[in-house]
């Protein structure tokens, strides 16, 4: 039974349970809802919750865990001989999975009977061709071990699926039965339902925590895996970045970090003065009318997807810079993709970020401080420079740090605008590359996940995560502390 | 504060009405400072204008497509040698066999219009000739599809619109010039002369390019046929996943944190965690998706389902933050009144607070969705780039599970390809994407205007 139908049946059972629970409670109360402890709908909801929650919890867990169990079982059964030289168990297992899926497709398409798929021998049939006929392309011929493993995989999966269906349906029916049996007039249905809903709410709130744990675990495990294959010292202190998928790569992070910081620096050099002056002007000088038009317009820049900025860097800003600084102009720029290109465009992207954060912070400075300064005869600019900005400084520093963390984590602009060469250079018109750009390039190739060239992306991701997290925590701490100061 | 008058200034310091040097300097500094602010705002607006102009100047071309209007004779001796009308025989005729039909048609036009061109006498080598470069590689396939869907066409002469090759298209749009094709081996100045004549005669013209909006992507060789339609569906299914998951989870989490959570260390941890998650670089969510959904759970690569899950995790903090803000803005008197007439805490929240906070929640959700719609980086890692989205999903399940692209991923894909004709498509794709984003934001603003209540 497909998953979809199983879900629908459980949902149907829940609806039926709702009606039955509500009806039974009312009937036992003699049709007078005043006799009931709770409103009739709570009795129904109680049954529906008992039907749905355990069944769906089991379903989700089963769907997540079953592949892992099957994988381990089959993998353990796979004989050493099935793993060819220059291959790994993980690769063979992915073959097994693909063959198993192929057999499923073939059976579904009617090209094979279920019996045939379960007992076919690779010595007798050309599995690759037969699967190819139904549109499943396999990279190589299927060995007898792989085919047998695939058949075992299918058998286990089918058995698991059947067991799951039975268990889930039993849980749903059992829950419904229990709920209906408990639906008596003096049953405190509302309290039970509210407690259950409360736990559901708590569960939803923990999704955020689970996400963080997921991020940390997926980074940590793969990073450890990477450091087993490649020394951590060479990674953190190496000055050459030269991955080659044939092996013998040099994977030093320093050139990437340098590129990242250089580009972020240029971006901040563009965004901070413009954003800050714009915020000061809009909050201290501009008339209400100007502010109502200019502020949302500048904030439009923040709503534009980064891919648009990336394209803008690659196709508009790059060629423009080349015309000025390229071979026909100053002659210090070789290609349109360069640190300057990416930095400039990233700066544009960050302007609204800096300006609206600073705007909030400047507005939070109490008016009495301005009035005091103006009353002493200071001009407005003197008030801003000597009273408002110093008072707002910690918050503004926080805003700039948040912007910096944005710049460091930005991907699309550097992938399209900064070039691909990892180098340590001072010339802002050279092509350089960043941590994020290399994560993308190392993980989008066809390399298998076990090679250091692919795993390095996780170590890069870990570095990126730690840097941005540090900046964020620090910045949020500053901003929050500052806000409390005037509240 | 005092009634005492200021003693008259001694010494000749001049009139009060005439500012002294120091005052003038200070006033000048004031004016300068003000000007800097104005310039900064101006630069911000200038960048916005430059970005928009650059998008529309470069992208408008994608919505037009050059096409030839030619009477094609579907010759029976080529398409159905036995004349039996048997569909299998017709199917056995390969696409390139349709090329001569197009060639004959264009030659007929050349003779009819009496155009002098060396191409008319060009040698035909096998199935290809110099004239073929005027047409898209997809043109013969268009004819074949027509014949396969209606075999009755064989033997007739029908006027058909056939799309031009990307070079000819670029020439009509001003992207390709005689100088720029000097080193091009596909197209010569001779071709362009012929195109000029044909254009004067109305055989070739630009028209609205509906296929760009609804059509599938095409391979590297056929930029003139690339469209956004399939990627749009991919984005649609992804947004469906994001909406169905992030709205309930986000609202539930916010209700708990705002209304029920006790003030303790765990709640604090969750709160700090959410504000930090909102600032984690999007690419890190891509790594999470790759490691958890693809490596561990073996969900299909490039599937909108996986993309949707990753974007859900990314959007959740945004939705939670805005939902909490709108829950907070519902005054406590509402809760107190509900509790006062005997509602339980849960009833007070679900029956009274939540409905009143709904406009704010929806606004926040739409803005979160708009953000997710434009996000590219995590999609790169779960394989939604590099995939040619050439097939429409055939059903809801396959829409979620079959490999697909998404709008921003499709734009990135085009930006990476070498042919400048794809750049025009990329800009055009951005226009479509921005139209979607703008619509969503306008809806959010209208919702806020219409339903927002000030207490």
Automatic annotation (TrEMBL), chain A:
It is found in: Cell inner membrane; Cell membrane. Residues 257-475 form the ABC transmembrane type-1 domain. Gene3D superfamilies: MetI-like. It holds the Pfam family BPD_transp_1. Keywords: Cell inner membrane, Cell membrane, Membrane, Phosphate transport, Transmembrane, Transmembrane helix, Transport. GO terms for cellular component: plasma membrane. The keyword Transcription does not apply. It comes from the Bacteria. InterPro entries: MetI-like (IPR000515), MetI-like_sf (IPR035906), Phosphate_PstC (IPR011864), PstC_N (IPR022182). GO terms for molecular function: phosphate transmembrane transporter activity. The keyword Transmembrane helix applies. The chain crosses the membrane at residues 45-65, 162-181, 201-223, 260-282, 303-326, 332-354, 387-408, 454-479. One of its GO terms (biological process) is phosphate ion transport. It is a multi-pass membrane protein. Part of the binding-protein-dependent transport system for phosphate; probably responsible for the translocation of the substrate across the membrane. Belongs to the binding-protein-dependent transport system permease family. CysTW subfamily. NCBIfam families: phosphate_pstC. This is Phosphate transport system permease protein. It comes from Rhodovulum marinum.
Automatic annotation (TrEMBL), chain B:
Coiled coil: none annotated. One of its GO terms (molecular function) is phosphate transmembrane transporter activity. It is found in: Cell inner membrane; Cell membrane. Residues 232-444 form the ABC transmembrane type-1 domain. The keyword Electron transport does not apply. It is a multi-pass membrane protein. Keywords: Cell membrane, Membrane, Transmembrane, Transmembrane helix, Transport. InterPro entries: DUF3333, MetI-like, MetI-like_sf, Phosphate_PstA. GO terms for cellular component: plasma membrane. SUPFAM superfamilies: MetI-like (SSF161098). This is Phosphate transport system permease protein PstA.
């Amino acid at each position: 039974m497909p998953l979809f139908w199983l879900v629908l049946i459980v949902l149907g059972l829940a609806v039926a349970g709702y009606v039955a629970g509500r009806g039974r409670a009312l009937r036992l109360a003699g049709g007078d809802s005043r006799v009931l402890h709770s409103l009739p709908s709570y009795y129904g909801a109680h049954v529906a919750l008992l039907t749905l929650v355990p069944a769906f919890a089991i379903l989700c867990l089963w769907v997540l865990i079953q592949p892992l169990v099957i994988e381990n079982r089959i993998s353990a059964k796979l004989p050493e001989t099935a793993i060819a030289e220059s291959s790994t168990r993980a690769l063979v297992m992915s073959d097994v999975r693909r063959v198993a899926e192929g057999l499923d497709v073939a059976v579904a398409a009617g090209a094979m009977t279920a019996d045939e798929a379960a007992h076919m021998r690779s010595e007798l049939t050309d599995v690759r061709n037969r699967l190819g006929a139904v549109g499943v392309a396999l990279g190589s011929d299927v060995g007898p071990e792989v085919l047998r493993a695939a058949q075992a995989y299918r058998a286990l999966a089918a058995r698991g699926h059947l067991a799951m269906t039975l268990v889930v349906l039993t849980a749903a029916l059992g829950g419904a039965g229990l709920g209906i049996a408990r639906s008596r007039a003096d049953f405190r249905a509302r309290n039970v339902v509210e407690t259950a809903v409360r736990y559901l709410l708590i569960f939803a709130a923990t999704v955020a925590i689970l996400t963080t744990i997921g991020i940390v675990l997926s980074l940590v495990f793969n990073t450890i895996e990477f450091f087993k294959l490649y020394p951590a010292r060479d990674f953190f202190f190496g000055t050459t970045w030269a991955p080659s998928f044939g092996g013998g790569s040099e994977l030093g992070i320093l050139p990437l970090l340098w590129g990242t910081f250089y580009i972020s620096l240029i971006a901040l050099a563009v965004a901070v003065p413009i954003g800050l002056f714009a915020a000061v002007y809009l909050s201290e000088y501009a008339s209400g009318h100007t502010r109502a038009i200019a502020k949302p317009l500048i904030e439009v820049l923040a709503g534009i997807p980064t891919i648009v900025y990336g394209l803008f860097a690659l196709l508009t800003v790059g060629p423009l810079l080349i015309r000025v600084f390229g071979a026909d102009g100053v002659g210090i720029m070789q290609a349109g993709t360069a640190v300057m290109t990416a930095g400039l465009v990233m700066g544009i992207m960050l302007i609204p970020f800096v300006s609206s954060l600073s705007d909030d912070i400047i507005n939070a400075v109490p008016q009495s401080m301005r009035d005091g300064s103006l009353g002493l005869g200071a001009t407005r600019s003197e008030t801003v420079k000597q009273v408002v900005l110093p008072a707002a400084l910690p918050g503004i520093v926080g805003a700039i740090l948040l912007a910096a963390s944005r710049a460091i984590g930005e991907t699309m602009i550097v992938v399209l605008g900064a070039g691909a060469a990892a180098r340590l250079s001072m010339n802002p018109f050279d092509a350089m590359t960043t941590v994020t750009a290399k994560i993308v390039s190392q993980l989008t190739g066809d390399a298998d996940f076990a090679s250091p060239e692919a795993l390095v992306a996780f170590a890069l991701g870990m570095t990126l995560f730690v840097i941005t997290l540090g900046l964020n925590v620090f910045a949020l701490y500053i901003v929050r502390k500052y806000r409390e100061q005037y509240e | 504060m005092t009634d005492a008058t200021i003693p008259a200034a001694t010494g000749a310091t001049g009139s009060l009405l005439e500012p002294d040097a120091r005052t003038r300097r200070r006033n000048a500094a004031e004016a300068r400072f003000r000007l800097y602010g104005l310039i900064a705002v101006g630069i911000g607006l200038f960048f916005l204008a430059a970005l928009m102009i650059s998008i529309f100047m470069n992208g408008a071309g994608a919505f037009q497509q050059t096409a030839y209007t030619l009477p094609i004779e579907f010759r029976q001796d080529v398409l159905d040698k036995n004349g039996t009308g048997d569909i299998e025989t017709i199917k056995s005729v390969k696409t390139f066999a349709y090329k001569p039909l197009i060639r004959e048609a264009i030659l007929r036009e050349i003779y009819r219009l009496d155009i002098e061109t060396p191409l008319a006498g060009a040698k035909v080598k096998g199935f290809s000739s110099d004239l073929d470069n005027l047409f898209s590689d997809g043109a013969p396939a268009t004819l074949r599809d027509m014949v396969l869907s209606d075999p009755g066409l064989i033997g007739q002469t029908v006027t058909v619109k056939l799309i031009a090759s990307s070079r000819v298209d670029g020439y009509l749009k001003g992207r390709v010039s005689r100088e720029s094709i000097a080193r091009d081996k596909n197209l010569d100045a001779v071709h362009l002369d012929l195109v000029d004549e044909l254009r004067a005669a109305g055989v070739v013209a630009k028209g609205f390019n509906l296929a760009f909006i609804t059509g599938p992507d095409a391979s590297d060789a056929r930029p003139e046929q690339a469209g956004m339609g399939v990627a749009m569906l991919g984005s649609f299914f992804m947004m469906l996943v994001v909406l169905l998951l992030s709205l309930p989870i986000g609202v539930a989490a916010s209700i708990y944190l705002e209304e029920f959570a006790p003030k303790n260390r765990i709640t604090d941890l969750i709160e700090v965690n959410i504000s930090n998650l909102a600032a984690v670089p999007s690419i890190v969510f891509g790594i999470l998706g790759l490691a958890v959904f693809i490596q561990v759970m073996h969900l299909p690569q490039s599937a909108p389902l996986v993309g949707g899950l990753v974007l859900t995790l990314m959007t959740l903090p945004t939705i939670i933050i805005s939902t909490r803000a709108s829950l907070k803005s519902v005054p406590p008197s509402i809760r107190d009144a509900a509790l006062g007439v005997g509602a339980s805490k849960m009833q007070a929240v679900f029956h009274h607070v939540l409905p009143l906070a709904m406009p704010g929640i929806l606004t926040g959700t739409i803005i979160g969705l708009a953000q997710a719609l434009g996000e590219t980086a995590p999609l790169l890692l779960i394989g939604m780039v590099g995939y040619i989205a050439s097939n429409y999903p055939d059903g809801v399940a396959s829409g979620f599970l079959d490999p697909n692209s998404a709008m921003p991923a499709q734009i990135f894909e085009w930006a990476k390809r070498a042919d400048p004709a794809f750049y025009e498509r990329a800009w055009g794709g951005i226009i479509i994407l921005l139209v979607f984003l703008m619509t969503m934001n306008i809806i959010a603003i209208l919702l806020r205007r219409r339903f927002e209540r000030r207490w």
